[in-house]
Amino acid sequence: MDSRKPRSQKSLRTLQDYFFASLRKPFCPSLKNKVVPNFNALEELHKSKDTAIVAIKRTPSIFYSNVESTVATLRGHGVPDANIAMLIQRWPHLSTASPDEFNKTIEVVKKLGFNPMKSHFIIAIVAVKANRKALWEKKVNLYKSWGWSEEQIIAAFAKFPWCMVASEGKISALMDFLVNQMGWEASIVAERPFLFSYSLKKRFLPRASVIQFLLSRGLLEQKVSTVAGMFVCPEKVFMQKFLTSLKDEPQLLKLYTDKLDPCKVTEVSISMKLEALKLNLYKEWVSLMKRFGLLSRVNDDF
Predict the structure, then answer these.
(1) CB-based burial of residue 42 (10 Å sphere; 0-12 exposed, 13-18 middle, 19+ buried)?
(2) Cα separations in angstroms, 64 against 39, 87, 241, 251
(3) How many C-alpha atoms does 183 have within 13 Å on its Cβ side?
(4) Which parts of 116-260 fold into alpha helices (H)?
(5) CA distance 168 to 185
(6) Can you tell me the distance from the alpha carbon of 53 to that of 42, in angstroms, rounded to the nearest whole number?
(7) Could you tell me which of 53, 60, 95, 46 has the C-alpha nearest to residue 74?
């Protein structure tokens, strides 16, 4: 006799487990008014009960939100379901606002020119909600203190809303680094607001050491677009192009790892060794093919 429970009973049990786990909080959500309506709204949004349960496992605080109202409001403004699911999953606290308040935020974002069909529309909502009026004005004034105009701030926000989610401390530190240490014009940073999504300590400082070394040796173009590309390219690409390929410059790896935290240094070291191993294996393969005359023309510059 099969003692396994039906799938629906397992799903219900999982939902109950997460509900009762939430009872440890000072204010537990109402089963009738919060838990069941929110679960049903998630199931309808994701078109799957199992996917709804996965969403709750990842973010149990969804139980405290107004998912049904949020979904209806965003759909009313033409936001795709995939983007609605992203907002509820990543920022469930935004769904606790009243429908009127949430609608006002959406109207502000629409007036700024964001397209409800794009994912940037959701990020703009997050940015507006993350900043009260006083904090928003502080950040605007901070950017202005670095020489950005009102038009540049609006254009930067439209291009990459995260630039207004960044803390005042991060904005000041990154602007100081790019303007005073890298020698960039403030307007150049305004054209590239995506830079504010990267960590000064983990991304900019380690790579800047390598960049400044290459510039001093004339091994790199002194073009902002080139340098900016080095800051934002994936870690693997950066290592292959500027560390592994320039293996005759032993100082580069030391300059890079000196600015990284210990865990990252170990990771980089392993990656470098793997890349070196792949390169040696490729050289051996080419040598073997040449020996047997299987390759008539081979580029020896690896």
Answers:
(1) buried
(2) 11, 15, 48, 53
(3) 8
(4) 119-130, 133-145, 150-159, 168-176, 186-190, 205-216, 224-232, 235-239, 250-257
(5) 20
(6) 9
(7) 95
Over residues 175-189, the pLDDT tens digits come to 999 999 999 999 999
Write out the DSSP string of 48-101: -HHHHHHHHHH-GGGGGS-HHHHHHHHHHTT--HHHHHHHHHH-GGGGGS-HHH
Give the rounded distance of the alpha carbon of 4 from its chain centre. 41
Sequential DSSP letters for 235-298: HHHHHIIIIITTTT-HHHHHHHHTTS-HHHHHHHHHHHHHHHHHHHHHHHHHHHHHHTT--S--
Q: Identity (one letter) of the amino acid at 104?
A: K
Ranges under pLDDT 50 in the chain: 1, 3, 5-8, 12, 20, 22-24, 26, 262-270, 298-302
Could you give the angle at which helices 67-76 and 36-46 cross, rounded to 10 degrees? 40
Cα three-residue angle 208-214-216, rounded to 5 degrees? 100
